[in-house]
Amino acid sequence: MEPMGKVLAISPEKCTGCRLCELVCSVFHDGMSNPARSRIKIVKWESEGLYIPMSCQQCQDAPCLIVCPVKAISRDEKLSRVMVNHNICIGCRSCVTVCPFGAMGFNVIDRKNFKCDLCDGDPQCVRFCEIKAVDYVDADRVSIAKKKAAAEKITAAQRQAVALESESH
Protein backbone atom coordinates (compact mmCIF):
# COMPACT_ATOMS: atom_id res chain seq x y z
CA MET A 1 0.00 0.00 0.00
CA GLU A 2 1.26 3.48 -0.89
CA PRO A 3 1.94 5.84 2.05
CA MET A 4 -0.64 8.57 2.57
CA GLY A 5 1.89 11.14 3.72
CA LYS A 6 2.03 13.06 6.96
CA VAL A 7 -0.40 15.74 8.05
CA LEU A 8 -0.82 18.23 10.85
CA ALA A 9 -3.28 16.60 13.23
CA ILE A 10 -5.11 19.15 15.34
CA SER A 11 -6.69 18.26 18.69
CA PRO A 12 -8.58 21.40 19.77
CA GLU A 13 -9.63 19.78 23.06
CA LYS A 14 -5.94 19.82 24.11
CA CYS A 15 -5.19 23.42 23.07
CA THR A 16 -4.71 25.84 26.00
CA GLY A 17 -4.53 28.95 23.82
CA CYS A 18 -0.91 29.73 24.77
CA ARG A 19 -0.24 30.71 21.14
CA LEU A 20 3.40 29.57 21.31
CA CYS A 21 2.83 27.82 17.95
CA GLU A 22 2.04 31.19 16.33
CA LEU A 23 5.22 32.75 17.72
CA VAL A 24 7.61 29.93 16.75
CA CYS A 25 6.05 29.80 13.28
CA SER A 26 6.64 33.50 12.64
CA VAL A 27 10.18 33.35 14.05
CA PHE A 28 11.04 30.29 11.94
CA HIS A 29 9.70 31.76 8.69
CA ASP A 30 10.25 35.50 9.08
CA GLY A 31 12.78 35.86 11.89
CA MET A 32 10.37 37.85 14.06
CA SER A 33 7.93 37.09 16.84
CA ASN A 34 4.75 38.35 15.17
CA PRO A 35 1.52 36.30 15.26
CA ALA A 36 0.23 38.18 12.18
CA ARG A 37 2.97 36.42 10.20
CA SER A 38 2.17 32.97 11.57
CA ARG A 39 0.99 30.21 9.25
CA ILE A 40 -0.99 28.66 12.10
CA LYS A 41 -3.70 30.69 13.83
CA ILE A 42 -5.42 30.08 17.11
CA VAL A 43 -9.12 30.87 16.81
CA LYS A 44 -10.91 31.39 20.12
CA TRP A 45 -14.60 30.63 20.59
CA GLU A 46 -15.26 33.11 23.41
CA SER A 47 -18.59 31.70 24.63
CA GLU A 48 -17.31 28.10 24.81
CA GLY A 49 -13.80 29.03 25.96
CA LEU A 50 -12.37 26.84 23.20
CA TYR A 51 -9.15 27.42 21.27
CA ILE A 52 -8.92 25.94 17.78
CA PRO A 53 -5.54 25.81 16.00
CA MET A 54 -6.20 26.43 12.28
CA SER A 55 -3.71 25.75 9.52
CA CYS A 56 -3.51 24.76 5.88
CA GLN A 57 -5.08 21.34 5.33
CA GLN A 58 -2.80 20.69 2.32
CA CYS A 59 -5.97 19.75 0.37
CA GLN A 60 -5.72 17.07 -2.30
CA ASP A 61 -7.84 19.16 -4.70
CA ALA A 62 -6.65 22.46 -3.30
CA PRO A 63 -8.93 25.39 -4.25
CA CYS A 64 -5.94 27.77 -4.01
CA LEU A 65 -3.99 25.69 -6.53
CA ILE A 66 -6.98 25.45 -8.87
CA VAL A 67 -7.81 29.19 -8.78
CA CYS A 68 -4.26 30.57 -9.23
CA PRO A 69 -4.25 32.33 -12.62
CA VAL A 70 -0.46 32.06 -13.07
CA LYS A 71 0.02 28.52 -11.68
CA ALA A 72 2.21 29.78 -8.82
CA ILE A 73 0.75 27.15 -6.51
CA SER A 74 1.68 23.51 -6.93
CA ARG A 75 1.59 20.24 -5.04
CA ASP A 76 4.78 18.75 -3.60
CA GLU A 77 3.98 15.02 -3.47
CA LYS A 78 7.11 14.19 -1.47
CA LEU A 79 5.83 16.00 1.61
CA SER A 80 2.11 15.96 0.70
CA ARG A 81 1.95 19.74 0.76
CA VAL A 82 0.76 22.63 -1.35
CA MET A 83 3.47 25.17 -2.13
CA VAL A 84 3.59 28.76 -3.40
CA ASN A 85 6.30 29.84 -5.84
CA HIS A 86 6.80 33.52 -5.03
CA ASN A 87 8.84 34.06 -8.20
CA ILE A 88 5.67 33.44 -10.21
CA CYS A 89 2.99 34.77 -7.81
CA ILE A 90 1.47 38.10 -8.92
CA GLY A 91 -0.16 38.84 -5.55
CA CYS A 92 -3.75 38.78 -6.83
CA ARG A 93 -4.94 37.12 -3.58
CA SER A 94 -7.39 34.80 -5.34
CA CYS A 95 -5.94 31.99 -3.22
CA VAL A 96 -6.63 33.94 -0.02
CA THR A 97 -10.26 34.48 -1.05
CA VAL A 98 -10.96 30.89 -2.06
CA CYS A 99 -9.39 28.97 0.87
CA PRO A 100 -12.25 27.39 2.86
CA PHE A 101 -10.09 27.31 6.03
CA GLY A 102 -8.76 30.87 5.89
CA ALA A 103 -5.30 29.31 5.91
CA MET A 104 -3.76 31.43 3.14
CA GLY A 105 -2.52 34.75 4.43
CA PHE A 106 -1.31 37.88 2.67
CA ASN A 107 1.41 40.09 4.08
CA VAL A 108 0.86 43.68 2.95
CA ILE A 109 4.42 44.70 3.89
CA ASP A 110 6.14 41.95 1.86
CA ARG A 111 3.28 41.96 -0.68
CA LYS A 112 3.30 38.15 -0.64
CA ASN A 113 0.86 35.45 0.27
CA PHE A 114 1.90 32.86 2.82
CA LYS A 115 0.69 29.49 4.08
CA CYS A 116 1.89 26.49 6.02
CA ASP A 117 4.70 24.65 4.23
CA LEU A 118 5.10 22.07 7.04
CA CYS A 119 8.53 23.64 7.73
CA ASP A 120 10.02 21.31 5.14
CA GLY A 121 8.94 18.25 7.12
CA ASP A 122 9.79 19.45 10.66
CA PRO A 123 6.82 21.61 11.72
CA GLN A 124 7.96 23.99 14.45
CA CYS A 125 4.44 24.31 15.88
CA VAL A 126 4.56 20.57 16.61
CA ARG A 127 8.09 20.72 18.07
CA PHE A 128 7.08 23.38 20.58
CA CYS A 129 3.55 22.21 21.46
CA GLU A 130 4.27 20.12 24.56
CA ILE A 131 0.67 18.96 24.96
CA LYS A 132 0.46 17.91 21.29
CA ALA A 133 -2.61 19.96 20.41
CA VAL A 134 -0.81 20.06 17.07
CA ASP A 135 0.97 16.89 15.95
CA TYR A 136 2.58 15.68 12.72
CA VAL A 137 1.42 12.15 11.99
CA ASP A 138 0.70 9.73 9.17
CA ALA A 139 -2.59 10.66 7.53
CA ASP A 140 -4.09 7.22 8.19
CA ARG A 141 -3.44 7.64 11.95
CA VAL A 142 -5.70 10.71 11.94
CA SER A 143 -8.58 8.79 10.38
CA ILE A 144 -8.12 5.89 12.83
CA ALA A 145 -8.21 8.32 15.79
CA LYS A 146 -11.33 10.03 14.40
CA LYS A 147 -13.07 6.66 13.88
CA LYS A 148 -12.24 5.65 17.45
CA ALA A 149 -13.55 8.97 18.85
CA ALA A 150 -16.75 8.65 16.81
CA ALA A 151 -17.23 5.06 17.96
CA GLU A 152 -16.77 6.14 21.60
CA LYS A 153 -19.43 8.87 21.17
CA ILE A 154 -21.88 6.42 19.59
CA THR A 155 -21.25 3.85 22.35
CA ALA A 156 -21.75 6.48 25.07
CA ALA A 157 -24.99 7.67 23.44
CA GLN A 158 -26.26 4.06 23.17
CA ARG A 159 -25.42 3.38 26.83
CA GLN A 160 -27.24 6.56 27.84
CA ALA A 161 -30.31 5.56 25.80
CA VAL A 162 -30.34 2.09 27.38
CA ALA A 163 -29.99 3.60 30.88
CA LEU A 164 -32.85 6.04 30.25
CA GLU A 165 -35.03 3.25 28.87
CA SER A 166 -34.41 0.99 31.88
CA GLU A 167 -35.22 3.90 34.26
CA SER A 168 -38.60 4.45 32.58
CA HIS A 169 -39.66 0.79 33.10
Account of the 3D structure:
The chain has 169 residues and is an alpha+beta fold. It has a domain at 56-114: Alpha-Beta Plaits, CATH 3.30.70. 33% of the residues lie in helices and 20% in strands. The chain is built from 5 helices and 8 strands. It has helices at 20-30, 63-67, 94-98, 124-128, 139-168, and strands at residues 6-10, 41-45, 50-54, 73-76, 81-84, 105-107, 112-114, 134-138. Strands 1-8 form a two-stranded antiparallel sheet. Strands 2-3 form a two-stranded antiparallel sheet. The N and C termini lie far apart (52 Å).
Features:
two-stranded antiparallel ribbon, alpha+beta, two-stranded antiparallel sheet, 20% strand, Alpha-Beta Plaits
Computed over alpha carbons, the radius of gyration is 19 Å
Order of helix and strand elements from N to C terminus = EHEEHEEHEEHEH
Question: Level of helix content?
Answer: 25-40%
CATH topology-level fold name of the domain at 56-114:
Alpha-Beta Plaits
